Amino acid sequence: MYGIAPGTDIGFLQGRTLQQICFGAHDVQFHFDERCTVFVESSIRIQNIEGAEEFYVVRRREEEAASFAKAPSLLAFLNDTISAVAWKGDGTLTLTFEVAGTLQVYDDSEEFESWQASNGQQHLVV
């Protein structure tokens, strides 16, 4: 729970198209065009275009089994483009897509990094 420093700019994600989602035991990786990535090791709120919400919790410890039950909901975001990016000082990142809906990533771990964003030149760890 480190939050985001004032003045941090994550606007480089706006206009990026999601090309690949990778599921690991302890993270979910979102790969966009233009070498942009978001790696998530925390909780994700998935809101589809109709407004239905689901929560996806990435497991962080070896003793916690990875749960991929919500993975199909994330697949709807493939090949969609981010139309808006918002972030708060508490570490919450919100990605609004043109068609599929919204992903909200939380900074909810006191022990580990919650998420990372990169464009190949700038790398942010929250």
Description:
Helix content is 4%, strand content 39%. It has 126 residues and is mainly β. The protein has one domain.
Please give a quick description of this structure.
The protein contains 1 helix and 10 strands; from the N terminus they run E-E-E-E-E-H-E-E-E-E-E. With 126 residues, it is mainly beta.
Key descriptive features of the protein:
126 residues; mainly beta; five-stranded antiparallel β-sheet; 10 strands; 4% helix
> Structural class, from helix and strand content?
mainly beta
Order of helices and strands: EEEEEHEEEEE
What's the quaternary structure here?
Answer: single chain
Mean pLDDT: 90
As a percent range, the share of strand residues is 35-45%
Q: Which strand order do you get reading across the main beta sheet?
A: 1-2-3-9-10
Point out poorly predicted stretches: none
Topology:
Elements (H helix, E strand, L loop, with lengths): L17 E6 L4 E5 L4 E4 L2 E6 L4 E5 L13 H5 L6 E6 L5 E5 L3 E5 L9 E4 L4 E3 L1
Antiparallel strand pairs: 1-2, 2-3, 3-9, 4-5, 4-8, 6-7, 7-8, 9-10
